[in-house]
Specification:
Blueprint lengths: L6 H10 L1 H9 L10 E4 L7 E4 L2 E2 L1 H11 L6 E7 L4 E6 H17 L7 E5 L4 H12 L3 E4 L6 H11 L3 E5 L1 E4 L2 E4 H11 L6 E5 L13 E3 H11 L8 E2 L3 E7 L7 E6 L1 H13 L8 E4 L6 H14 L2 E5 L11 H9 L1 E6 L1 H10 L16 E4 L6 H11 L3 E3 L11 E2 L16 E2 L5 E4 L12 E6 L14 H9 L5 E10 L5 E6 L3 E4 L2 E4 H9 L4 E11 L3 E10 L7 H15 L8 E4 L13 H8 L14 H12 L3 H5 L1
Parallel strand pairs: 4-17, 6-7, 6-8, 8-11, 11-12, 16-17, 16-18, 18-19, 19-20, 30-31
Antiparallel strand pairs: 1-2, 3-13, 4-5, 9-10, 14-15, 21-22, 23-24, 24-25, 25-26, 27-28, 29-30
Helix pairs in contact: 1-2, 3-4, 3-5, 3-10, 4-5, 4-8, 6-7, 9-10, 12-13, 17-18
Bound molecules: coenzyme A and adenosine monophosphate.
């Protein structure tokens, strides 16, 4: 392995003295008060970083760049091929927008520690709102626009937001998504009622304000902009929460991942330099959505903490208007580094297999492509390498960690790429592979991927109001380690290979979804006796959910009709993002003798992979029945076999 990279020395440096390592990185941040101890092992569930320090994330992301005389530098570029709009905000303008909005939120009663729920599409106001909430020392929780009312209600009931900030609509290529019915429905369903909704009316879709509840964003923000209202950054403890981001768990109750202020800033800023190799003033584009962790970390916070330029892109890799959109954005804005999910490249490759549109644009600014969110398949990596002629870096992380667990740190010097591997553990992470009994496995052997505690700065300290669930979901199974719920192996060179989830989470177009949550919804259909949802391989989206349903005995209604209702139920309850379109009625589900549904075996059958008859199976004939239904309905690889 090449020694040209500084990675090994830096990793060894971190391992020798993690506290000292992070203290050095923390010098890049403005602190209102220094920490008492860089890592307090006695605080929180497994310890807390920068204990005793005070800071403000908005100050570090916005004000300090203006104070340093860099107010004229572009901070946020809004590029929306879906509406045909473009707008640019420099750091001084960003500060004005954020301060005015913070004044509005303050008028609505938001104080330090209060929660504010954000339900917005990819508009710059979504970023302004996150920063304004941070400015007040309050806590935001952004909900992705592709989730429906029920998911929104679950989050409202969990985090009790004082205010909801929403837009009047999201815009998808083939349709508008009006948010008002979703918001009204969610608030009606939720037990907790927010005091106010601040609504950004988009000209593409009007919004009827609810008297007494809703306030028009533009009018009140404008008033404070005109008045030049000043709102100082509220000092918070480094360990205070900056945001809660809900992510899929194994049940319908999503997990509220908590991110703190101090450690988050330190690790994200470090990652911009060490992993992405980006300098202040450069343009970094994460083509994701603010509703996901990639959007939180690499659309909003990390680029702005660094003093770089970020892009809020409201469009899709294809169809807005074509598969050349990404190249157009890179050219128009001089993007240095693009970060997206492999599925976006699979979509582009499908539309333009020869990459003919790439040649139409000048991509000389582009230095690297980063892929994450799902396994990067070798074909996609090779295609991107060949067409773009820049390093294509797969990196692996999770909502929980907030930044990469493993990657190829371009800022420390690129390591040789091994296609299929997100490369090596980042400084901060002691990654190990262990068997189910907790013993380390030899290099090259598949096992549970775990991280030795403590997790680094920016990784979740706990789940919102749920320390016990945090422990049971992540820490209890392998004492002393954080369980990633990913399985894989590490080779002799320390390269990681991420193979599969060990739980019922599936990855659909880079979106993390819980099959358990879908099963809960389907089980609510009055004609369904039981069901099992599995993720089946899909060339474009990586995986697609497929639901197997067993009807109550005596049901005489049309099976087609019931299946359509089940599909609609998941779309209405969870949202279109679930991409749940396959419902298959079967006579019975394959189970072990103790009644556990054999989802793993069903998945292998659907994907045409080799499978072994489980020794504990109750009735082997049922697996044949599953295979037959898949073939008859032309679903999955079983159908192609
Ligand atoms: N608001 C409302 N609906 C949304 C939405 C949003 N923000 N995002 C997606 N949806 C809808 C889509 O319109 C689609 O609805 P449909 O069933 O009516 O067609 C459904 O949710 C499924 O969306 P998706 O799985 O994204 O499929 P798609 O066909 O619209 O797009 C890709 C496919 C690959 C182009 C798209 O998934 C993509 O660009 N992915 C990039 C990866 C990414 O952003 N990952 C995030 C983590 S890095
Ligand atoms: P999310 O929390 O939505 O970011 O999803 C995290 C999960 O996505 C991980 O636990 C993995 O299962 C998967 N994932 C993310 N990045 C990668 C990657 N580079 N390679 C393989 N799987 C990945």
């Amino acid at each position: 392995m090449s020694n040209a990279s500084g990675y090994h020395a830096v990793y060894a440096d971190w391992k020798k003295d993690p506290g000292l390592f992070w203290e050095k990185q923390a010098e890049a941040i403005d602190w209102f008060k220094p920490w008492n101890t860089v890592f307090d092992a006695d605080s929180g569930v497994y310890g807390r970083w920068f204990h005793g320090a005070e800071c403000n994330t908005c100050h570090n992301a916005v004000d300090r760049h203006v104070e340093a005389g860099r107010g004229e530098q572009t901070a946020v570029i809004y590029d929306s091929p879906i509406t045909g709009k473009k707008k640019t905000f420099n750091y001084a303008e960003l500060l004005k927008e954020v301060e005015a909005l913070a004044a509005v939120l303050r008028d609505l009663g938001v104080k330090k520690g209060d929660r504010v729920l954000i339900y917005m599409p990819m508009v710059p106001e979504a970023v302004f709102t996150m920063l304004a909430v941070a400015r007040l020392g309050a806590v935001h929780s952004v909900v992705f626009g592709g989730f429906a009312a029920h998911e929104l209600a679950t989050r409202i009931d969990d985090c009790h937001p004082k205010v909801v900030v929403a837009a009047s609509c999201g815009i998808e290529p083939a349709r508008q998504v009006p948010y008002k019915p979703l918001l009204d429905n969610a608030i009606a369903q939720a037990k907790f009622k927010p005091d106010h909704c601040l609504v950004l009316e988009r000209e593409e879709h009007p919004y009827d304000l609810e008297p007494g509840r809703d306030t028009d964003y533009a009018a009140v923000v404008w008033a404070h902009m005109e008045a030049g209202t000043k709102v100082p950054c509220v000092p918070v403890a480094a360990t205070d929460p900056l945001y809660i981001l809900y992510t899929s768990g194994t049940t319908g109750q999503p997990k509220g991942v908590v991110r703190d202020n101090g450690g988050h800033m330190v690790a994200l800023l470090y990652s911009m330099k060490a992993l992405y190799g980006i300098e202040p003033g450069e343009v970094f584009w994460a083509a994701s959505d603010v509703g996901w962790v990639v959007g939180h970390s690499y659309i909003t916070y990390a680029p702005l903490l660094l003093g770089a330029t970020t892009i809020v892109f409201e469009g899709k890799p294809v169809g807005t208007p074509d598969a050349g959109t990404f190249w157009r954005v890179i050219q128009d804005h001089g993007v240095s580094s693009l970060f997206t999910a492999p599925t976006a490249f699979r979509a582009i490759k499908k539309e333009d297999p020869t990459g003919s549109l790439i040649g139409k644009y000048d991509l000389k600014s582009l230095r690297s492509l980063f892929l994450a969110g799902e396994r990067a398949d070798p074909d996609t990596i090779k295609w991107a390498q060949e067409k773009l002629k820049v390093p294509v870096i797969d990196h692996w992380w999770q909502t929980e960690t907030g930044w990469a667990i493993a990657g190829n740190p371009l800022g420390l010097g690129e390591l040789p790429v091994k296609i299929g591997s997100p490369t090596v553990a980042m400084p901060g992470y002691d990654v190990q592979v262990i068997d189910d009994a907790g013993h380390p496995v030899p290099a090259g052997t598949l096992g549970n991927i775990v991280v030795k505690l403590p997790l680094p700065p920016a990784a979740l300290p706990t789940l919102w109001n749920a320390d016990t669930r945090f422990r049971s979901a992540y820490l209890d199974e392998f004492p002393g380690y954080y369980k990633t719920s990913d399985a894989g192996y590490m080779d002799e060179d320390g390269y990681l290979f991420i193979m599969a989830r060990t739980d019922d989470i599936i990855n659909v177009a880079g979106h993390r979804l819980s099959t358990g949550a879908m099963e809960e919804v389907i089980a609510g259909h009055p004609d369904v006796a039981e069901c099992a949802v599995i993720g089946i391989a899909d060339q474009l989206k990586g995986q697609l959910p497929a639901g197997f349903i067993v009807l109550n005995s005596g049901v005489t209604r049309s099976v087609d009709e019931i299946e359509r209702e089940v599909v609609k139920l998941v779309r209405d309850e969870i949202g279109p993002v679930a991409a749940f379109k396959i419902a298959l009625t079967v006579d019975r589900l394959p189970k072990t003798r103790s009644g556990k549904i054999l989802r793993g075996t069903m998945q292998k059958i659907a994907d045409g992979e080799p499978w072994k008859m489980p020794a504990t199976i109750d009735d082997p004939a049922i697996l044949d029945e599953i295979g037959t239904v898949l073939k008859e309905r032309n679903v999955g690889q079983a159908a192609a076999a």
